[in-house]
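Anyone up for a design puzzle?
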C-alpha cells in the first residue's frame, strides 16, 4: 500500500481531469486516466480495445496500465494523484464480464485509504469523441464505484460541486 497514492474517482464528466490539472499546476505529481489514454491510442491506431467496441479488452488494458502507472510512481516523493486507477478498471471488468478480479488486486495494490469521488454533475457533463457514453451510463458507473470502494475498506469522500481551486483546497486540506 502507498499512503501517498491518492485516487480521484467517481462519475464520468464530474471534473476529475480538471481537478487533476489544478493539482499538477500546484506542483503535485499526477497520473492521467488510463481510459482516456487507451481510447486515444486505440483511435489513432485503429484498434478495437475501446469501451464501445470491446469493453472487456479495454478494461483489461486499463488494469495493466494502472498497474504500470503505480510502478512508475513508486520512487516519487509526496502525494501522487491518480485520475481513476486499478479498482475503477477492475470493477468495470467485473460488471461487464463477471470476472472476479477486484478482491485479489485490491489487497496487493492498495492506494491511500481516502478516495475522493466526483459526484454526478449534469451541469458540467459533456460527451466527446473519447467519452461516448451518456449521463445515464455515467450515473450507473458512479453508483457501482460508490459501493465498490467502501466494500474494499476505503473511505470515500464526496467532492463538493465548487470551483476547481476550491476543490483542490478541499482535497489537500482533507489529506
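Challenge accepted. My sequence:
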Amino acid at each position: 500500500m502507498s499512503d501517498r497514492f491518492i485516487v480521484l474517482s467517481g462519475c464520468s464528466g464530474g471534473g476529475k481531469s480538471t481537478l487533476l490539472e489544478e493539482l499538477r499546476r500546484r506542483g503535485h505529481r499526477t497520473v492521467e486516466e488510463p481510459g482516456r489514454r487507451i481510447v486515444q491510442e486505440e483511435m489513432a491506431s485503429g484498434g478495437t480495445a475501446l469501451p464501445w467496441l470491446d469493453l472487456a479488452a479495454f478494461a483489461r488494458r486499463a488494469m495493466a496500465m494502472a498497474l504500470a502507472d503505480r510502478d512508475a510512481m513508486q520512487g516519487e516523493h509526496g502525494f501522487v494523484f491518480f485520475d481513476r486507477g486499478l479498482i475503477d478498471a477492475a470493477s468495470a471488468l467485473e460488471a461487464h464480464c463477471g470476472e472476479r478480479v477486484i478482491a485479489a488486486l485490491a489487497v496487493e495494490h492498495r492506494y491511500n485509504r481516502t478516495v475522493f469521488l466526483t459526484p454526478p454533475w449534469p451541469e458540467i457533463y459533456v460527451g466527446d469523441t473519447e467519452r461516448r457514453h451518456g449521463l445515464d451510463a455515467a450515473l450507473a458507473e458512479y453508483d457501482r464505484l460508490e459501493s465498490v470502494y467502501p466494500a474494499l475498506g476505503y473511505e470515500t469522500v464526496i467532492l463538493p460541486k465548487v470551483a476547481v481551486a476550491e476543490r483542490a483546497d478541499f482535497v489537500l486540506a482533507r489529506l
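A detail worth pointing out: The chain has one domain: 5-174.
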